[in-house]
Amino acid sequence: MTVDKELEKLSHSTPPAATPEARARALTAAMQAFDTAGNNALAPQGNAKAWRQSSIINWIWSPAMNKKFLAGSALATLLVIPAAGYLAIELTRNGLPIVDQTEIAGNLSRGEASKQPVATAGQPVAVAPQTPAENGSLAEQSIAGAQALQDKESPAVAKPGAARISEFDANDIATLTNKSEGSTTALGAAKRFAPAAPGIAPQQQLAEPMAAIAPSPAPPAEGRVQIQLDPNRERFANAAANPIKSVATDPVSTFSADIDSASYAFIRRSLTGGAMPDPQSVRVEEMINYFPYDWPGPDNAAQPFKATVTVMPTPWNHDTELMHVAIKGYDIAPATTPHANLVFLIDVSGSMDEPDKLPLLKSAFRLLVNRLRADDTVSIVTYAGNAGTVLSPTRVADKSKILSAIDKLEPGGSTGGAEGIEAAYDLAKQGFVKDGVNRVMLATDGDFNVGPSSDEDLKRIIEERRRGGIFLTVLGFGRGNLNDSLMQTLAQNGNGSAAYIDTLAEAQKTLVEEAGSTLFPIAKDVKFQVEFNPERIAEYRLIGYETRALKREDFNNDRVDAGDIGSGHSVTAIYEITPKGSPAVMNDDLRYGAGSKVPAETSDSAHQGELAFVKMRYKRPGEDKSALITTPVNDGNVVAAVDAAPQDVRFSVAVAAFGQKLSRIAAVDSYSYQAIADLAAASRGADTFGYRSDFLSLVRLADGLSQQ
Predict the structure, then answer these.
(1) How crowded is residue 261: how many other Cβ atoms within 10 Å of its Cβ?
(2) Fewer Cβ in 10 A, N or C end of the chain?
């Protein structure tokens, strides 16, 4: 009560006037009270210290701004979502996938490009050949991106009636994969240029995943599409097919001998891998000459060759005939074979680190070493960036040393072949055997990409060295990087031959069973010239030998280089000829000039019965002047029916038909693979090593692949 009275008393009293001192004391007391209250308060959430996170201004401003931008975000969402949906529909309708670039980049860095896709029923899957992993090219990034997306997206199964996706054009794909844009852009562009498959609704197209990439060239199953996203780097030596020539204006055909077999082995590798071979890889003469034939040979070495000519009806054209020319070389007896000085020039670059390359190469050379005689010598030079001598000239009597050097070879580095060739020839010169076999055996998988690497530069090196009596054999291994064009250039200009080793069985055939013809030449610069009688023959076409064509005047010019033939080797050439008056004649008679007249020398009675005249020039090893062999072709060489031709002739004709069909020659368009197989089967004969049975298998594989 006392307190209340005191308060009431004070309420009626007049307060003292304010003074500056009193005001200052009051403000100081208030500030102290405020600081004490702030220091004793709990720390705000997320701040370990005891002061406030923002000022009073931010505390007031934030709610206002949040309300404003919340409304703005809602409006932006209403606009962006429909636009994004429309854009996604348009992109996927044209086949461009929406890809998480970050995820693809991560997959590329982790090497997920090697994952294999699994095809489901009705799912179109693209098939493309393998590419070397070390390239790091834009095409590989495209493939890796496609596989990453395949792993991410779930595949959609097409309706039973849906047509398959349209195939790409190989040229368009090659152009796209070489562009500078990113992988997704390149693949998307490719898809946009491919027309949509009829019968597939837009919803189905949205659900379709990007085509996956398979690593092997296996034949596509039903419903699959073959798409070549990244063409390999293999180069082939070939030319346009020989045309039909009129005897009235061009009666003479001239070409060089060819005993190479690389083309046949490459074709076999493609077909057994489930893919039709590149037509550019097909050289018909190498396919024909791959097989051993029992042609009649010469009686002695005085005349090292014998020609056998057969004229028969053409199986694929009843209005033309085939003139089959078979040459057999003299077979040197094993006891009289000359001593061999061999240098193995072996590519050990990083690209050789594959089972069908360096490991196969080492096994092949072991076979060859076991075939040599004790007094032969072997040297080994390797190249990978820099050349190195692994083994100095060593007698085969010390076989364990040679085999040990081969076994120790390891891959690594880039391919600098020019320096290796120089070192190999120097080593061959060091161990040179007079009147013996001096040969460099080059084994590689592809390009010489270090140092002088153009075909012309290497050709010049080989030409300079061959004058010293050292020959060259080129052996190709592996796939994806094979430079067949360079192999042919080196072999042809190095007085040697080229072969492709795809299996150990092929190494056995080339280096063991045919070692005599591979290693021991009986003639060099072998040329052929055929003159047709215009009274009997209207037109002709040489089957194969496009890369071996010579000018007419080259035949008698001993300075012009040509092919070599080894001991016991055979060479076969086949002409398709059109008799005078046949309905198959393609060229009209000339209106002016003497083209339709028979030359005086041809109208002589001694030559009237002749169909053609075959000439052959050759040089013996170590000689510079050529010798001539001639063979007239007359009615005595003609057989009335295909079945009347010798067995080996018919089989070689079947091989010629197969090679032309793989080359897409129009002349055999109507001649089926089954007809080829029937002709080959009927003339297979004694097949000691199974080569002809394997040929029949290849024909059947090609027949099946061509129908897909």
Answers:
(1) 23
(2) N
Are the C-beta atoms of 543 and 575 separated by less than 8 Å?
yes
Rounded mean pLDDT of 215-240?
52
Task: Please give the Cα distance from 411 to 353 (Å, whole number).
Answer: 6
Residue 14 CB-half CA count within 13 A: 2
- Residue scoring higher pLDDT (15 or 315): 315
The share of the chain scoring above pLDDT 70, in percent, equals: 65
Q: Rounded distance, CA 518 to CA 647, Å?
A: 25
* Number of separate helices (H) and strands (E) present in the chain: 20, 19
CA–CA distance, 268 with 483 (Å, rounded to integer): 17
Report CA-CA distances (Å) from 424 to 381, 418, 491. 6, 10, 15
Given a contact cutoff of 8 angstroms between Cβ atoms, the answer to whether 256 and 481 are in contact is: no
First to last CA, the chain: 116
Which tens digits make up the pLDDT trace of 263-299?
999 999 999 999 999 999 999 999 999 999 999 999 8
DSSP H or E segment with residue 542? strand 537-543
Q: Coil, helix or strand for 299?
A: coil
Q: Please check the confidence at residue 430 and state whether its pLDDT lies above 70.
A: yes
How are beta strands 225-226 and 126-127 bridged, if at all?
parallel
CA atoms of 289 and 298, how far apart (whole Å)? 19
231: amino acid identity, one letter: P
| Mean pLDDT over each residue of the chain, to the nearest integer | 76
Q: CA 570 to CA 324: how far, in whole Å?
A: 13
Encoded tokens for 214: 């398979």
The three state secondary structure string of 625-677 is CCEEEEEEEEHHHECCCHHHCCHHHHHHHHHHHHHHHHCCCHHHCCCCHHHHH
Contact 377, 398 (CB under 8 A): no
| 553-588 pLDDT tens trace | 999 999 998 988 888 889 999 999 999 999 999 999
Instruction: Give how far the C-alpha of residue 335 lies from the chain's centroid of Cα atoms, to the nearest Å.
Output: 41
pLDDT classification of 479: cutoffs 50, 70, 90: confident
Q: What is the rounded CA–CA span in Å between residue 85 and residue 89?
A: 6
Q: Is the pLDDT of residue 310 over 50?
A: yes
Amino acid at 394: T
The first and second tokens of residue 390, run together, are 């692994």
Q: What is the pTM of this model?
A: 0.67
Residue 678 parent element (H or E): helix 673-682
What is d(CA 233, CA 130) in angstroms, rounded to the nearest whole number?
A: 11
Three-state secondary-structure class, residue 178: coil
The CA-based angle 165-168-171, given to 5 degrees, is 180
Give 384-427 as a 3 state SS string. Answer: ECEEEEEEEEEEHHHHHHHHHHHHCCCCCCCCCHHHHHHHHHHH
